[in-house]
Design brief:
It is a single chain. This protein is an alpha+beta fold. It has one domain. 21% of the residues lie in helices and 10% in strands. It contains two helices and four strands; from the N terminus they run E-E-H-E-E-H. The strands form two sheets. Strands 1-2 form a two-stranded antiparallel ribbon. A two-stranded antiparallel sheet has the order 3-4. Strand 3 and strand 4 form a beta hairpin. Helix 1 packs across helix 2. The chain is globular, with a radius of gyration of 15 Å.
Length: 121
């Protein structure tokens, strides 16, 4: 999202905030844009990717829950941010991860299943 009151003709990095955690876009925090100015940062994306892509939850999306990034109601598993009401569907998480991972400047890589600790029996 954009910071409230920022100049739309002169948007700076610090005017771009993650819709999920509210932090500013910076050199150390990459950001991917969704629709209508919605944004997800690299850290939220890592958490989302682990949850909805690697862990593959079985529960379907709740009815009436709209993805913050694509603004659609989808049957995909949704990742809910710890704070606020923003959520991201699996399709958007996959697409955003592909965008971030492609650009070496961001230094971001997709979490792999080795990053998930096996559940203790
Ligand atoms: Zn974030
Ligand atoms: Zn979506």
């Amino acid at each position: 999202m954009r910071r409230e009151g920022c100049d739309p003709m002169n948007v700076r990095m610090s005017d771009v905030l993650c819709d999920f955690c509210g932090r500013e876009w910076s050199d150390s925090l990459p950001m991917v844009e969704g629709h209508q100015g919605s944004c997800i940062c690299g850290e939220c994306l890592s958490a989302a990717y682990r949850t909805v892509v690697l862990s593959a939850p079985q529960e379907p999306a709740q009815a009436g829950v709209r993805c913050t990034l694509c603004l659609e109601n989808r049957d995909d598993p949704m990742w809910h941010a710890a704070a606020g009401h923003a959520c991201a569907c699996r399709r958007c998480v996959r697409q955003s991860a592909a965008v971030l991972a492609k650009d070496p400047d961001f230094g971001w890589r997709k979490p792999d299943s080795g990053d998930i600790r096996p559940a203790v029996p």
